[in-house]
User: Fold these one by one.
Assistant:
Number 1:
Amino acid sequence: MSITLSKAAIFEAQAEKATSWRNRLLALPALVIIGIFGVLPLLIICVYSFLQAAPYGGVQWKFSTDAYLNFLFQRDIFDDTLQFTPDFLIIYLRSFLFAVVTTVICLLLGFPTAYFMATRPPAQRNWWVLLITIPFWSNLLVRTLAIMFIIRDEGLINNALMGLGLIEKPITMLYTNFAIQLGLLYSFLPFMILPLYSSLEKLDFRLVEAANDLYATRRQVLWRVIIPLSLPGIIAGCLLVFIPALGAYVTPLILGGGIHLMIGDLIAQQFGSGRNWPLGCAQALILMAAVLVALYFYVRNTSGKIQHG
């Protein structure tokens, strides 16, 4: 009897080992792709950030920390002293502000929209999802140019207001912070609605009915039942909006006219007209580090709330 059990244990161990190796082989292609297109470029950027900039682009293979030093300081051309220059820091703070405002407004607009979609009859929900995803059928550049044609001085809004006699001269909206914010909202609102809809669709609305039967007000039902149960969708939507909005490039370039820079435009300038690749790599790494730190505290706090709930 004991011999039979030992053989069964050996066969089971061998089967588990074979399964483990098979799973590793199946994961190998994905790991190779991640390593080549994810880890390797990140390592190259990290290495380049500690090199000297070549005069006409590229790098010189000499170790230097000037890229990180130039993020906040510049050397005086006469006495070589360091002077604090907050220009890059201001652009980073402006980008964070744009991303936060975009995330908050998308959440305020996306939550009631997703709730409306989730409470429709099942036969209608697919049509509402289709309407939300229609903007993805066209290129972001085309959609951004369409917004530019709408809000420019000779655009649809100004022509309509002047035609109605509400204004005498066009309202300047293009190439302003308002235009950038509008473009970010339009571009990333679906990224908020879809995760919220996916979470609210799975919500057991019998809990909402039970809360109503217990004489809970609509506000209490919202804050104590619906929002806690849909928190995973809120977290996913906020992450999907905040991170791309922080590194947006096309929207501020077109709607901001290159006047109101964001981080994406700033980094692109270093690799283009600035010809300072190490500084561009350092700015990208600083951005990534700031995002990782912010996400760490955000996810840790929100995951604690989910477990507590």
Note: The chain has a mean pLDDT of 86.
Number 2:
Amino acid sequence: MKRIEDDLLIVLDGAPYFQASAVTDLAARDDLDFVTLPAYSPELNPVEECWRQLQVALSNRFFESLDDLTMAIDSVLDQLSIPYMSNYF
């Protein structure tokens, strides 16, 4: 029995570009484990929580310049609460 702890776990959503030959060739490697999320399941995708936090912090705001927007994004990214990955698997 193969131990998943020894391998790198790759999580893919249902995007069509993950079906490209470069990705499917990687799936054949013994040291990588792939998990494909079900369609329309953002609650299972940790990056969606990061996007949600960015949206909450930056939506409904007016920025005078691109520099102001960039500084606001940088500030939010510094404070981002990264989801605890094991909650998702």
Note: The beta strands are 8-12, 32-36.
Number 3:
Amino acid sequence: MTEQVRIVLVDDQPLIRGGFRALLDAEDDLVVVAEAANGEDGVALIRQHRPDVALIDIQMPVLTGVEATRQIAGDPALGGVHVVILTNYGIDEYVFEALRAGASGFLVKDIEPADFLRAVRSAARGDALLSPAITRKLISEFVARPPAARTAAGLEALTNREREVVALVARGMSNEEIAECMVISPLTAKTHVSRAMTKLAARDRAQLVVFAYESGLVEPRAGRSSPAQ
């Protein structure tokens, strides 16, 4: 029997929670172990159940999705919980703050059911989860920010190889795609990614994406990212 991905669902709208739960519980490999209507109760349930994935609405009463993410990421006992933020909204400072706090990524609530299920499984594997629409807006926002807002802190700690790997992660590449691009084995690519995450104290691959743009390691050009010279 396939091991199930355990999920805690946190959203203040009962209809949204019910719809997502019905989708998830209909799958043999996915199960919702608890649900909550506000961030404070959600964090308590996540501490109790320690799920693989926490689906958290970005704007909720009592405790926002950003603050809930920060508390989860700050608890060493919850290191295995992958937070995915659910949002109806476009990119704003809440999105950046949740990413910086340790969210694995974002999903818009009008996502197609098949894409939603695929995304939850990807999050459980530890992959960065940024939908194409979110990623485009995220990059555009970084471009619009003045250079002074970027920091090169942490770049010195990375080897040239690790910088190259982080730049490719920021382009949305998987370990297998990075390996093919750099002509190395997938295991070596995974090792480089893991070392970069450790050196940058990045909880998730999504935080590597944020770092790559904030530090200026990559620059969006015609929809692409290329290593900064």
Note: The longest helix spans residues 186-199.
Number 4:
Amino acid sequence: MQIHWIKIKKIVDETPDIKTYFLEIPEGYSWEEGAHLHLALEGFNVGEKPNKSLVRHMSISTLPNENAIGITTRIRQQCSEFKAILRNLQVGDQVAIFKTHSNVPLRRENKNIYLLSSGVGLATFRPIVLKYFEQPENVPQIHSLNIDSSKNYLFTNIFKTNHDKNFTAHFVDNREEYYDRIKKLSTDKNGLYYVVGSDDFLKQNIQVLLEEGIKPEQIMLDKPPRRLPDFLPIELSN
């Protein structure tokens, strides 16, 4: 396993409690849309065993042509040790990255794509949408639906309806409207449904989609294959 120690180039406050950390790109390092990595803080690999409390699985919210690895995360006042340390890091400080992989690349199957997310989960979808804008081939249209009760919606410069690009974006702040919209979207029985959020959020979305007749193979989760049976019917999740 290769570990890259890299510096923070820039920190942006996206909302009162969400930050994006822009990191250096190591030489020869690349990734595809929908990718995630393991982000580790100094001291995580000191001693006989790694300190897992200093490591987190994070989505990459940028594309390589943006010349930085973007990590967008929510940091509340009451937070974990990892988030507390991260909050105090400054430009020039070092972090480590390793194990980069994408479970949710943009599927180009001439099917409409629906991006369903909660809060900062939208960070996973940002590079997917940008990639679609750059190369829309074999993707008829994309619809994004995000729920965030704080109403501090993310990336509104990108996630806004653009009819010329066949892209539609909706933000809602309550579950009733959110699930009503999912039911309307799921009238497309051939679409591909990407879901990002907490495990409970995934399970609730999957339940609604399955009840509406969407098949498990049409549902994309940011989970490794070994975890899919925890969320989707086992006999159909291969």
Note: Residues 122-134 form the longest helix (13 residues).
